[in-house]
Specification:
Length: about 375
């Protein structure tokens, strides 16, 4: 039995359920003995997702200077990893969450076990920067991430497209693929909280996720504003934290829930929607489709390669990426002419056959 220690040093709204989903699925394996060291940051916590006594929960420093020092050299994290590795005789150490803060400790981790690193984005996505400080910080993160990729021999991805790219770019390294976990947990499944901003609204068009430029939210906004027929019947709800970087008007038909969406609110957010739209202009790996599939929410997605890879053709309707006119046309088609029952049935079948914990577990086992 292989002993695997997962490191989750980054806490972000999408990253936490992603990492927790992998740890939970891997823990079901009879071939793996799974441990983890996680780092909470404020209200973003792994503790509500993971309950195993094999998980060491740390908390990121709150002071400004201490946070900077921790990002440069995460001494407390390394100490916890070292202790776990020696006590449990860990075979494999797997960095799951980008973990750019671990850049300086990679050589030491290699002395404790065989190191694996999950590559989320080999190439940076389109970004909006509010100022020079954000731009420089992002470049620093990219530089550190690239250093880790170059330093670690075992690279893992959840994208088949990126898997092929990694094999071509790093011929001498060991490249692995395993399925992306469903971003569903007990709090999401049992949650019945309604976002107060839309307590009396349903049948809306939904975008859900942290607002970033590569997700192309402005194309959905423009397509909606240009289609008077859709506006008469459906409101547009853009739900998620992040900077609203594109020009927009105050309009009662467009509702921004510009904050962190609690897990307990996700179920009702999706089940009350007429459809969800993912207008991404790029994506390497993402679990956003899994939520819609679990709750049977009709999906309109851009035709970027990853969405086609992460779904079956009948689970979504696709439009040309970054094409406002085509997005508007396809949105109208989805809302008025599509066989939505057939789409929901396909989503149900895909979720059960490709996204169960058992399927993810078998995929993970093949790595180690």
């Amino acid at each position: 039995m292989k002993k695997v220690l997962y490191i989750c040093s980054e806490a972000a709204p999408g990253m936490i359920p992603y990492a927790a989903g992998i740890i939970i699925a891997a823990s079901l394996s009879k071939k793996l003995d799974v441990y983890a060291v996680t780092v909470d940051d404020g209200r973003l916590s792994y503790r509500q997702y993971l309950t195993s006594d094999k998980v060491v929960f740390l908390t990121a420093p709150s002071g400004r200077i201490a946070r900077i020092i921790n990002k440069i050299y995460p001494y407390r994290l390394y100490r916890a990893v070292k202790k776990t590795c020696r006590q449990q005789q860990i075979d494999c150490i797997h960095l799951l969450t980008g973990d750019f803060t671990c850049c300086r400790i990679i050589p030491k981790l290699k002395t404790l076990g065989e190191v694996f690193y999950t590559v989320h984005d080999l190439e940076p996505h389109e970004q909006y920067y509010a100022g020079l400080r954000e731009r420089l910080f992002e470049k620093w993160i990219t530089r550190r991430t690239r250093h880790i990729i170059n330093s670690v021999n075992n690279l893992v991805t959840n994208s088949r497209f990126q898997y092929e790219k990694l094999k071509k770019s790093f011929i001498s390294k060991c490249i692995f693929y395993h399925s992306f976990p469903a971003l569903i947990n007990d709090m999401v499944l049992s949650g019945n909280d309604v976002c107060p901003e839309i307590s009396d609204i349903d049948g809306y068009i939904l975008f859900f996720g942290y607002i970033q430029k590569y997700k192309g939210v402005e194309y959905l906004y423009d397509a909606y504003m240009r289609n008077a027929g859709i506006r008469q019947k459906h409101k547009l709800v853009i739900a998620g934290n992040g900077v609203i970087y594109f020009p927009h008007q105050d309009n009662p038909d467009v509702i921004f829930i510009n904050r962190y969406i609690k897990d307990e609110e996700i179920k009702m957010l999706f089940t009350k929607a007429a459809c969800v739209v993912y207008p991404y202009i790029s994506a390497t790996q993402s679990g956003v489709l899994t939520i819609a599939f679990r709750f049977g929410t009709p999906v309109l997605a851009s035709d970027i390669p990853y969405f086609s890879e992460a779904s079956d053709p009948n689970c979504c309707l696709y439009f040309k990426s970054a094409d406002v006119q085509n997005l508007s046309s396809k949105l109208e088609e989805l809302l008025t002419r599509c066989d939505l029952n057939a789409m929901k049935s396909a989503q149900h079948n895909f979720f059960n056959s490709k996204l169960s914990n058992e399927v993810i577990m078998q995929s993970i086992e093949s790595i180690y």
